[in-house]
């Protein structure tokens, strides 16, 4: 499983666009990039997944450059309820030794 | 409702005791993963089962054990409990690894007193 590096924390204000970047230099050819959101005392929740270029859904956009060594989660017009920890996960379909390691994530704090 | 069911939601027990946490995966998912999350800490991977067999192990203590039954539900057994075992324990299920995504349950909050 590719190791990921994210900022430990970020602050932003309501109504702003927030971009969280994840580095994954040793991403493999068959790896996908997935982002999860976790609120306090709740299990992580799937936000978005991509393989290359750009993916957009009703919640966020995911930008992946051609070399795929990084990815950026973009949250448009954030609100206070977007305050959460965001995890970047990189991996493919299930392998034999599939230790799914969530890093420390990025603690996003939205200010009024 | 994520489709992954964890019981009980809360558990308070004394040091030295043994508890069992239960997880029912989302329908069709063969893999179950257990995680421990202490206060303000990240998710610590404990163990994974796939269709009844242990598939991967993380930093799971010897006092902890797990199994997955033929109906695919899983149980995490924690014994000789210590104060430091107090945490949220999450179960997740998947149909095929990262690329298929993980669905998490709402967790069991264990308090050891």
Shape of chain A: globular
Order of helix and strand elements from N to C terminus of chain A: EEEEEEEEE
Shape of chain B: globular
Largest sheet of chain B: 7 strands, mixed
Low-confidence stretches of chain B: none
Structural class of chain A: mainly beta
Detail the poorly predicted runs of chain A: none
How would you state the average pLDDT of chain B, rounded?
Answer: 93
Number of helices of chain B: 0
Strand order of the largest sheet of chain A: 1-9-8-3-4
Proportion of residues in helical segments of chain A: under 10%
Radius of gyration of chain B from CA coordinates: 13 Å
The main pleated sheet of chain A reads as: 5 strands, mixed
Largest interface: A-B, 31 and 31 residues
Strand residues, percent of chain A: over 45%
Query: From the alpha-carbon coordinates, what is the Rg of chain A to the nearest angstrom?
Result: 14 Å
Number of helices of chain A: 0
Give the H and E element order of chain B.
EEEEEEEEEEE
Count of beta strands of chain A: 9
